[in-house]
Design a protein that fits this description.
It is a single chain. By secondary structure, this protein is of the alpha/beta class. It is built from 10 helices and 9 strands. It has a single domain (3-321), classed as Glycosidases (TIM Barrel). The protein has helices at 9-12, 15-26, 50-53, 65-74, 89-94, 122-138, 170-185, 213-216, 246-263, 288-300; strands spanning 3-7, 32-39, 42-43, 78-84, 142-146, 191-197, 222-226, 275-277, 306-309. Strands 1, 2, 3, 4, 5, 6, 7, 8 and 9 form a 9-stranded mixed beta sheet that branches.
Amino acid sequence: MIRALYVNRWATHSWKKLHQLIAMADSTEVNGLVLDMKDEFGLNYKTTNRTFAANAGNAGAVPNLEQILDTLKAHHIVPIARMVAFKDSVTARVHPEWTIRKADGSIWRDKKGIAWVNPYHQELWDYNIGVAEELARRGFAEIQFDYIRFPEPYPSLPPQVFPGSNGVSKQRVLAGFLENAKTRLNPLGVRVTADIFGLVTQVNGALEVGQEWEQISPHVNVVLPMVYPSLYPHGQDGIANPNAEPYPIIKAAITRARERDAKLGITTAEHVRPWLQAFNLGKPAYGPGQLEDEKRAVYDAGYDGWVLWNPGSNYNAVAAGLEKTLVSRKKPR
């Protein structure tokens, strides 16, 4: 089982911050850290590959990755590399020919003016999986792909055009990417995992961004649905304010995930490891009580693992909700 904390790009650059998070892991049930290694700002480590270096970006890089990984190993903390796949403005700038287009052939941009790369582009697959292979060889135990999706097709924005799609559905090309990644990375001794929207566990069919449970789950070692209660619509599962009732929201989502896996013949222990909310968005503010409710929902749904998300990697507000030792709490299926 893995119970982890998210560590953003800037926190990975700070030994002071890293030591605080490592100390938190040493004194609690936490046994993993998810480190930003490739995000919207490019690579966050010094690559030895000249081709990859062209997409590195200008936001700096961890100067001492080997030292960090050695330290985590010494503290028995599982190192997980988070990689943003298709919301990659740096690669879009370096390789405009890899981008999603508008009908007139120009580059499509989202509401923030950010260009996205095109998931149908095979060279993009090779780049992302190549970076993942390099990180695996550096010593990461798991590659966690984020933004395994297309951008939202808002009606207020121009339609998206995907060169090279050749009639292949969004959900099928995302599955193909993950299948390819797993085939190449598992032999290196690392798990392949994917972050998806929490609603994917309960929506039948594919979301407009291309995520569909039945297409993603079979092609990864672990699925990580982002079941943040604050992001669910009012009235979800009959709950007026989901943010105020994390237990039933998360229990329903993860139970449904387990049921859908069972229909796929997937009964692997810990195949689902949800992201849990450790930030504030609306009322109430999240503290130890909310975290305990979130964790209990996961355990009651039949799983032991989770990852906490706080965009600033600040977990003091919920820390009292962490147990002191790592003990299995999941209910038998």
